[in-house]
Design goal:
This protein has 375 residues and is of the alpha+beta class. It has 2 domains: 27-203, MHC class I-like antigen recognition-like (Murine Class I Major Histocompatibility Complex, H2-DB, Chain A, domain 1), CATH 3.30.500.10; 205-303, Sandwich (Immunoglobulin-like), CATH 2.60.40.10. Helices cover 31% and strands 30% of the residues. The protein is built from 6 helices and 19 strands. The protein has an 8-stranded antiparallel β-sheet. Strands 10, 11, 14, 15, 16 and 19 form a 6-stranded mixed β-sheet that branches. It has a 5-stranded antiparallel β-sheet with strand order 1-18-17-12-13, with no helix packed on it. Strand 3 and strand 4 form a beta hairpin. Helix 2 packs across helix 3 and helix 2 packs across helix 5. Residues 1-8, 10-26, 331-335 and 337-375 have low confidence and may be disordered.
Length: 375
């Protein structure tokens, strides 16, 4: 049963009363601005180039070489472009001229197959301390390849193949200084400007729905909460009003496709006696909301697909048994007729298998070119 409740023990009440005082410590107010660009070759179903701007994890701007259209995805971003045509022109040039040209040149050095290069760069601003931390990372075919250490202004290879690139890029101090300025100064200015436009939207509060889920009667019970915003939350299981840790599995917060989030915390109930279930509940706390959502551990409220899975398992068992009978009959037939023909029944038994790895993926040589001025 899901309900809003303030029925907590004395310790929890004190924590809730002090939350406003310690809020900035519990939930560090940080904002991020990330620019991610991707170039690809060898697959007609993938855009040759795509770029996305994420502000606090929310998609603000998108463009790709297929649609040839710059798309501000938020009303506050549309307002920025409307008020500052030069800012719009800068994004337009980067999306449809500079960045595609750079990635097209770099990836053209790799021949054959499908290849994807990615660069992600941006910064994170701590609203409490005003500290800004920048980052930039290169990826190749879905894996991290090279990243920059801004403290030492040196590149860190994430793959052995990147070591030789690191040596060359570390010597280009002019480019490194440009990157440092972009990630610590320019990014800070843009981030604060975006926050001034989008703060009302990004500070909104969206309440979630909470469900109890269980795959089988012996599986853990999942307290699943989805549809909340922002992602500054706490969720835990309690017994007799006290938070418990034994038998509890906390899963990470995941994004939904509607710019909200979801989280799951599992409780192992294998050792919980049926009469003790009523002593347990799941507590969800959303930053900025005074009341918590408390969900009692109740068998009647659990959503499960056990009955359907059980029927499917029984059908699969029957089908497997039926196939085994057919196979036995087939082998028996072959044995009875083995002497009637001199032709081998399996004509390919002497052939060598084809090695699918005989053509290894080429080294990502396009990453050797230190074109880094456009972040």
């Amino acid at each position: 049963m899901v309900s809003w409740s303030d029925s907590f023990n004395h310790k929890e009440k004190m924590i809730l009363l002090l939350l406003p005082l310690f809020y900035h410590g519990l939930f560090a107010v940080k904002h991020s601005l990330m620019h991610s660009v991707t170039g690809s070759s060898g697959d007609p179903n993938i855009s040759e180039f795509a770029g996305v701007v994420l502000f606090d994890g929310t998609e603000a701007v998108y463009c790709d070489s297929r649609n040839k259209k710059l798309e501000p995805r938020q009303d506050w971003m549309k307002k920025i472009f409307s008020n500052d045509t030069q800012h719009l022109a800068l994004y337009t040039q980067q999306c449809f001229e500079d960045q595609p040209k750079i990635f097209r040149f770099l990836i053209s050095t790799v021949k054959g197959g499908v290849h994807i290069g990615q660069r992600t760069g941006g910064c994170e601003w701590n609203e409490n301390t005003d500290e800004v931390v920048g980052m930039v990372q290169y990826g190749y075919n879905g894996e991290g390849f090279l990243e920059l250490d801004l403290k030492t202004l040196t590149w860190i290879p994430l793959k052995p193949e990147a070591a030789i690139i690191k040596k060359e890029w570390d010597t280009d101090t002019i480019v490194l200084k440009d990157i440092e300025s972009l990630l610590t100064k320019v990014c800070r200015e843009w981030l604060k400007r975006y926050w001034s436009y989008g703060s009302s939207f990004l500070q909104r509060t969206v309440l979630p729905s909470v469900s109890l889920l269980q795959k089988t009667p012996s599986s853990p019970v999942s307290c699943h909460t989805t549809g909340f915003y922002p992602d500054r939350v706490m969720m835990f299981w309690r017994k007799d009003g006290e938070e418990i840790h034994e038998g509890v599995d906390h899963r990470e917060i995941l994004p939904n496709n509607d710019e909200t989030f979801q989280i799951t915390v599992n409780l192992n109930v294998s050792s919980v006696r049926p009469e003790d279930w009523k002593r347990y509940d799941c507590v969800f706390h959303l930053s900025g909301v005074e009341d918590n959502i408390v969900t009692k551990l109740d068998k009647t409220a659990i959503r499960t697909n056990w009955d359907e899975n059980n029927r499917t398992s029984e059908r699969n068992t029957f089908n497997s048994f039926y196939l085994i009978l057919i196979y036995v009959a087939f082998v028996h037939f072959l044995c009875l007729n083995s002497g009637r023909s001199q032709r081998p029944f399996f004509p390919f038994k002497d052939r060598q298998p084809i090695n699918p790895c005989m053509f290894p993926t080429p080294v990502p040589c396009f990453l050797f070119v230190p074109v880094l001025r456009y972040l």
